[in-house]
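REQUEST FORM: STRUCTURE PREDICTION
Request ID: SP-0412
Submitted by: Lab K.M.
Chain count: 1
Length (residues): 194
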Amino acid sequence: MTSSLSVAHATIHLADSTQKTNNFLVPNATFIVELVSVLLIMAFLGKYVVPRLTKALGERQAIIDKQMTDAEETAKQLAEAKSSYEQALNEARAEAAQIRESARAEAQRSLEELRAAAQEESARIVARGEEQLARQRSSIVRELRAEIGTLAVELSEKIVEQRLADDAQVRATVDAFIAGLDSAASAGAAGSPS
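STATUS: Completed
RESULT:
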């Protein structure tokens, strides 16, 4: 029984030794090598890669910050430019309204001046026409008086040449004389300029 006991004990001891080597909680040489490898990789990354990444990220962040400040400054400039534009537009509108009002006043003044000049010209033309008509009238009256005088002398000569005893003949001569005067007056009125 001792031998079976010793075999059992040896089996237990062998099982214990295999359990000791297979225990995942106890570090073995592979674990230590892997741990050292990971630590070396982390040290390498920490010394060479992370500073470069941090520097690149810092530069990128600085560029982004600069772009943000530039965008804010551009927005301010845009707002100022828009304000200036609106102010200039309002001034231009006010100036345009003033120019339109000035142009209307100038047009009204020019219209009144032209109207006054036209009335003066019309009055001058009417006055000249009246003067011309008065001269023509006096000229026609003088001509008619001279002609009437001549005709009266001719009529008297005809009457004297005829016999005074024949009353019908004298009346016919006077009627012919008056008809000649009427036709001469009609021809003179038609021939005179209006």
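NOTES: Helices lie at 2-22, 29-161, 167-191.
Reviewed by: T.R.
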